Model the fold of this input.
Amino acid sequence: MSEYELVCGLEIHAELLCEEKIFCACPSGFGGEPNTRICPVCTGQPGAMPRLNPEAVRLGLRAALALGCEINEVSFFDRKNYFYPDLPKGYQITQYERPFCFGGRVTLDSGRGIRIERIHLEEDAGKLTAADGCTLIDYNRAGVPLIEIVTAPDMRSGAEAAELIDHVRLALKYAGVSDCRMQEGSLRFDVNLSARKRGEVGLGTRTEIKNMNSVSFMLKAVEYEFRRQCSLLERGESIRRETLRYDERRNITQTMRVKESESDYRFFREPDLRPLVITSDMVERVRRELPELPESRVKRWRAAGLSAQDARLLAAHRACADFFDESARGGHEKSAAKLILGTVFSLFSNESELEGFELSITPVQLSELCRLLDSGRISMGKSKETLLRMLEGSCSCMELLTEKDFEGIEDSELRLICANAAREHQAAVRDYRAGKEKAIMPLVGRVMRQTEGRADAARVKQLLKETIEEG
Ligand code: ZN
Ligand code: MN
Done:
């Protein structure tokens, strides 16, 4: 099997965080009693006219910019015709010939670039549920605004596909485009994959695994399907181009349908919608709305001395990243990271709690604690203990710390005291300069007495040496 390599691409569908559906004013949120959020437009009644929701365009644009794509000033909507009960119109309105967005690129941790070929806007279909001997249909989801992100077949392993999904998911969440809840189906993906002999350049026949909403099942499905294709090729058989479903329980892929060709969909321009025009002004306006994205934050934090792993953990949820940024302001990245990852994180029991990242203290209150820690006035142990009490009582550190908690003394203050001591004991300074190392000890003793033992003796000695050598 090792003589074959995996070639894989993704089509990622994300539901947009719009209040209304893409072509009508029905509510588009998740859930609701079945078939209560519907109207003549999203159920395809004769004569009902679609009207494009500008919010969907704005969010699509955000996604495109967050993924480094370019924008087509003019794009079109098309009808993708198929007969299936999940879309009562008999066709899906999508963008086929000319999507609003093309040409992005995502860089994986390894440095490998994955091309994004296009992103287009389209409508979601209804939801079918198999029940006792029949199929139930809920059209609440029909017409929910979607973007579809299509990558080039640039990934070479399931792990790379997983990393790409992770990257896209985080970017969309930061940009406020989609909540990307895989378990609710607001982020789903199709994986297309083929196998070829290592060193070959052309692409083999691909199969497509449809509608996955779990990264761990995707990894299993890809592994199974790659193995299946390899063994067929090894036996000299050919791969059939087909659409597959992954059976989670049995861990196999199954044929859904032998792949229809594009012409089966009889695509044609949607006559009821005007061309979509996106001006460069609109693009710039949306660009200004975007927050700083995770990748750029990770880079900035690493430059401030954080490890790659710590930076990634902090960037994994936008609310946490924002809190960290505010509390680290003024050069306290390292101590803020230690306190958040080492103490605050332990209070959250799962990912969804981390996602909200609601704390009972403000970033400014954490920043105050970081300042005390960084200036050496309190120890790491004391600061962790204080932080826990702050979170419990939702109060600032100054309300909790007492005089005796300040075991340290600020460097700038200590430096002044040392300079004074040197000025007042010129004889000792002369002896030290003449080479009598020990002459400095009475000065250290004096500073220690003056600061009532709050200062660290080694630090005092160091500062005294610096003062004398500079003076
Ligand atoms: Zn509707
Ligand atoms: Mn699609």
